[in-house]
Amino acid sequence: MPERRASGRGLHRMVMRITAPVRSAWDSSIRFRLVALTLTATILVVLLGGQLLLTRAGDGIVEAKKQFAATEASVALQRMQTQLNDTDMRTESVLERLGQLADEVGGQGTQYSLFIETPTSSYISRGMLRESVPLELLKASDDGSTALFVTATQVLYVDGRSVPGVVVAGHLVAPNQQEFPTYFVFPATSEIQTLTVLHRALWVTASFLVVALGMATFWIAHQVTVPVRQAAEVAARIASGDLDQRMAVRRHDEMASLGSSMNNMAGELERQIRALENLSAVQRQFVSDVSHELRTPMTTMRMATEVLHEAREDFDPHLARSVELLHDQEERFEEMLADLLEISRFDAGAAVLSVDAVDLVDLVNAEVVAQQGVAEKVGIPVEVRATEPVVVEVDARRVTRIIRNLLSNALSHGDESGVTITIAGDAQVACLTVRDHGVGFAPEAAELVFRRFWRADESRQRVLGGTGLGLAIALEDARLHKGWLEAWGQEGEGAQFRLTLPRKGCMMVDHAVLDLEPGDR
After folding, report:
1. Is beta strand 419-425 parallel, antiparallel or unpaired with respect to 382-385?
2. Which residues are within 8 A (CB) of 386 and not within 5 positions of it... i.e. 6 or more apart?
3. pLDDT digits (tens, 9 = 90+) for 5-32
4. pTM to 2 decimal places
5. What burial class does residue 487 get, using C-beta atoms within 10 Å of its C-beta: 0-12 exposed, 13-18 middle, 19+ buried?
């Protein structure tokens, strides 16, 4: 049994390998499918129609042969009966006369062979075997009936030949009232030749029809698929940024309508993209200009706020609280301006890397120490898990900012269960995950968390202030390093973010060494 299963699997693999090109062409080419389906349908119709035609023609030829044989046999039998009736039984014996009649009627030049059966002997045309007459017909003709029996048979010859034919059975009645069964055997040689010619003509016509339909279908499919392929190529070039591409329209048919619609769509798309590019450029310039222009009054406001904040103990409690709120919001406003400036650099494509070899574990530990006060304030412990140094060639300032944003986000949305930062790497990539056990977010929001100013829960009050741009900037920093920044979340179970960076700038990230979904669920 194991050998049989192994043989079956080997046969299956061989069949799959042989049919792979056909399956590939079937999946990738409308032209191939159209031609294949047309040829398959044509062949089926030709086979069924040809078989029906040949069957009907064969039945008609056999029926015509039977009618012809019955007529010829009836005429010959009547002539033989007339001659037999004129026989003078006093001078000639019945058997001798039957032999003479058999030689006269069944001699050369006739379309049939003759077989006359007598009680003591039989008269058979030369070259034919007695077995040419079916046994059922022999029994049917012994019942004394004067009717003619017609049936199909296989005519057998002494030289081993065999051809289809028709047998007509009758009786000769001697003057002494003795009956002799008489059989006329008609070989269907000419009819077989006719059927052979019909077969040949049918299959030649069918082959020509299949080839002609295949060529016509291929041409029609070519006429249909070429414009579609051209439309796909033009669409691909437009998608790659070549907005000036258009389809050539030469006729006025449906394909020309497709080309015209494609060109109109491309023109409208180009106009919309140009308008959006102009609007985006204006928006980026506006954000950059506003951010730069606000830095001067913000500096003045900060200086004034610092003076008031240092002297807040001399104010009454209500005024002192107002000064503290003003100081905190001014710091948040300044952070937002810095983030807006950074976002505008990303949008303008002006962000560049200053790469150095650094230990990712050291960067994480330094940032954890820097935010230790915030962690103690919200009561969330932070744990770093790393077994060895993980050296990467990165822009330390930008990677530190990614870690800061991820840790700040975890402290903002986590709970007393704590935040866990795990670091690991292999020869190609380095991974860092930040896990919290807070409110989390729905799985379908895993991409939305990196949008600018997006919040998982709009009704939730912030514990720590934030600009709403931290994760968006972190994602842009990761992409600038040709790395990944991904998120996993589940409502009520917290969230986990995974940063994957190449160990060297020349490498590409194609895998991660840490799972995105946490193992403590």
Report:
1. parallel
2. 361, 364, 422, 423, 424
3. 556 666 767 766 776 776 776 666 777 7
4. 0.46
5. buried
